[in-house]
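Good morning,

Attaching, inline, the backbone tokens for the sequence recovery test we're adding to the shared suite. The designed sequence is right after.
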């Protein structure tokens, strides 16, 4: 972690408004930015970085005020993720996933379950991880009296060793019924492996995890009453909600890339010797490129904020969410996900055109922005996001709720 001393957030009042929380995220991002390149290169477990998120109160953003939470909504959470991601995409991802897993009980669980979990999470400043990859039936759940027993292996487990609690997901033996439960991350039988070694998002603790008979009470099975799941359309809002986390992660990384590149261009990029300009900032192609990339980024940010507003209306009245409303929202999320993916990849690639050959030096780490975006945007094929939009336009077809749509 940076040798720069972060602000002592413990002596300062808790932010009250959305603007205050976003400003606090900016302060945290400023600390993270001071040594982002070195930390990316080292790839060490980000204990100090997560502690900074806790000390600043950002982990409690969505929690109830009565228990020490920020009492904010998803619109603010997305903006906070975007702000943190400008400095460090890995920490932005960790925080965004934390928000989703913290909210998962409300999405899937009973009122009694989510009120308990949210109160404890805010009071104790829990950091959430998730051993969830529902594409594969790789974790089997069995019953043993009043307990559920999770056994298997997950390829990915974002948050792993830096989390206080982990959301587990598995399939009841011999069925297609999935079950989610929140368990302490130090639960017996839960083993996180240090095998995340990818080109980007290096500090997300996204390696594999083994579940060797992890036990949890039946009462912790989210949304189950008397061992029967209580379905609601709102249950399926987990996918568009986390996809908007992805959108703001990409936009934040792209914004950070532009800011970092512009600072380099102002101070270090040299004008082309045949261009007739004394300063790089007067080169027409450089001015044009920054204008082009900024306009594209601003456009997607505006769309992302508009879609977040639409989603918040659904979160505000969960029991009133209809299949039509959910489907229309997913289409909008798919649209902004597709645009954010394309623009973030373009921005993080083209910044080298306006910074110059010397900007490829490893010590500068400008490549981390592209590596981070490229890595995470492969989460699910963007072509299928465009397909959702196209089918809706041509046939009025709503996306079928799946683990990816």
């Amino acid at each position: 972690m940076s040798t720069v001393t972060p602000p002592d957030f413990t002596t300062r009042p808790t932010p009250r408004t959305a603007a205050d929380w976003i400003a606090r995220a900016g302060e945290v991002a400023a600390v993270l930015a001071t040594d982002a390149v070195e930390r990316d290169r080292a790839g060490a477990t980000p204990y100090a970085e997560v502690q900074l998120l806790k000390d600043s109160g950002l982990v409690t953003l969505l929690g109830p005020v009565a228990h020490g939470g920020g009492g904010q909504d998803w619109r603010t959470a997305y903006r906070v993720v975007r702000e943190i991601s400008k400095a460090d995409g890995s920490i932005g991802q960790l925080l965004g996933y934390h928000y989703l897993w913290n909210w998962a009980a409300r999405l899937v669980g009973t009122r009694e379950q989510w009120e308990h979990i949210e109160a404890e999470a805010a009071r104790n400043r829990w950091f959430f991880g998730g051993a969830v990859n529902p594409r594969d039936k790789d974790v089997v759940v069995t019953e043993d009296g009043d307990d559920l027993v999770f056994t298997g292996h997950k390829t990915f487990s974002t948050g792993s060793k830096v989390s206080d609690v982990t959301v587990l997901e598995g399939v009841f033996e011999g069925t297609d019924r999935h079950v989610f439960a929140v368990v302490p991350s130090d639960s017996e039988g839960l083993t996180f492996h240090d095998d995340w070694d990818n080109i980007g998002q290096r500090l997300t603790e996204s390696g594999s995890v083994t579940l060797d008979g992890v036990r949890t009470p039946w009462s912790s099975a989210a949304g189950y009453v008397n061992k029967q799941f209580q379905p609601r359309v709102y249950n399926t809002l987990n996918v568009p909600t986390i996809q908007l986390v992805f959108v703001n992660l990409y936009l934040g990384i792209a914004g950070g890339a532009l800011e970092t590149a512009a600072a380099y261009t102002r101070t270090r990029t040299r004008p082309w010797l045949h261009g007739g300009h004394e300063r790089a900032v007067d080169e027409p192609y450089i001015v044009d490129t920054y204008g082009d990339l900024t306009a594209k980024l601003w456009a997607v940010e505006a769309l992302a904020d508009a879609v977040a507003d639409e989603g918040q209306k659904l979160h505000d009245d969960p029991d009133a969410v209809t299949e039509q409303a959910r489907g229309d929202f997913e289409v909008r999320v798919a649209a902004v996900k597709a645009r954010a993916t394309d623009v973030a990849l373009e921005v993080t690639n083209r910044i080298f055109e306006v910074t110059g050959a010397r900007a490829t030096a490893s010590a500068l780490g400008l490549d981390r922005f592209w590596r981070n975006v490229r890595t995470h945007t492969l989460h699910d094929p963007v072509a299928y996001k465009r397909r959702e939009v196209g089918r809706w336009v041509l046939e009025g077809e709503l996306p079928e709720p799946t683990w990816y749509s």
